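Work package 3, deliverable 3.1, input record:
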Amino acid sequence: MDHTIEISGLTKDYGDSRGLFDVDLTVEPGQVFGLVGINGSGKSTMIRHLMGFLHPQSGRCSIQGMDCWRRAAELKRSIGYVPGEIAFPDVKTGFDFFNLQAGYFGKRDQSRLHDLIDRFRLDASAPLKRMSKGMKQKTAIVAAFMTTAPILILDEGTTGLDPLMQKVFTDLVREEKANGRTMFMSSHMFDELEASCDRVAFLKRGRVIEVVDMSQFNGDEPVKEYKIEFNQPQDYLAFLSRPFSVSRRQEHLNQVSVQVADLAVADLFAALADLDVRFITQVPRTLARHFIQKYYETEGHPHV
Amino acid sequence: MFSAALMRQTIRENAALWTVLTAVQCLMIATIGWTAPIAAAGVAYYNMLPGIFAGIYAITIGNRLICAKVDRGTLAYVLSTPVGRRAVVGVQTSFFIGSLAAMYALTAAVHSVAAVLSSYGADASQVQAIVKLNLGLFLLALAFSGICFAASCWFNLSKHTIAIGGGLVCAFLLFPIIAMFGNNFAFLRHLTIVTLYDVSDIMAGAAGWGWPLAALAAIAAAAYAAGAVVFLRKDLPL
């Protein structure tokens, strides 16, 4: 009941291992939750269940304790949404669209609208039909964030945005998180959610393979990976004889990668002191690398 | 349960076709009503044309109200607001029925006024016949609209809605015409709901003339209800 979003035992079998299978997930209030997976892994199917477009075959999903299917209309007072495939209604301009959506919500207060339009440098007076993919995406994002809904659900929300706008988007997500809004967003780009999420679930063939805490990534991880290259082969070999956890070796380059806990980092430097080191660098543990590795592991052939 | 914003948007989207079809029918019926009494030219008109107009309107609007929004994905933007499926069905049904009622109320009024002001000066019984004919037409169009609405709720692709809903309505309209080609085809008259709208019986005020019309209303009610039930329960590929 305390979870903002709760998915339990959710199954929707479309055959050929497509759909969702026994998915359990929870999102806490104020959390930014990411859903990552390759195309066809079931991300949109999960979001369509949250939106009440699809009926679960078994299991259930609820938002703020309310069933997503049975109380779909009521729940929408609390949800801002960016659809995976944006199809605007039959109105002329971006402004007409924003007015229409505000009308459905029964609200006329659009104070946030102009701020969002400015941030995304959106020309909302342009005809919707002539908008580029990026413009349409920005329009959809503005429509979702202009509501005061405490929960935002974004299906591939940043597709088609240029790097500058991605940054604007990430900043906006951080701000809204600070305002206490809960966000649930999906992406097929493994690293896209890195900057904004607290937790990320990795979906493969309709099953949640892993849920990671983002504090374990991007330099905060307690065990770090270091890549070291030596000038001389004998130093390379000498280093390999030391008791470090080696994750990768490239003999032709005299290069080695080791996993070292922060607490043991002094041992590493002591070992390197009398060796001829060409360079040492830390390899950040990225979500993309982690998930790619995880993906191949679950396929049965590890890949680095 | 009801959304004024959605109703406004639906009217905006569909006003053009309603206006054109209503205007053309009013123009024709005004001309006919002005030149000849109902018993002369009116029968031929009511037998032939309005059914086709009703068919065009029902097929086009029926598809647009639900299925086209699912097919194109625009319904996602309605359902992502507090306007739920019940409100969508309620608003679209009200629009469909209301727009048909307005269309035939207008044609009945235009025909009556033209007939009363004409040189032959229609009397009260003739005006009554005009009103009855338009009431019958409304119910025939309502049955068509119900069939198309049910198809629109059932299918997710416009091409299927038009093929099945539209196909059925077209077949109903064509059967009485094909039946005229000879005795071998006469049975087709029994396979269409169009013959429930019997112009000569209504004109003559024959005993029990209202029953076939009640049947049309029942078909419409059943079709709308079936469509609504399906739409409220089905998965939407949005």
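Chain B has one domain: 4-233.
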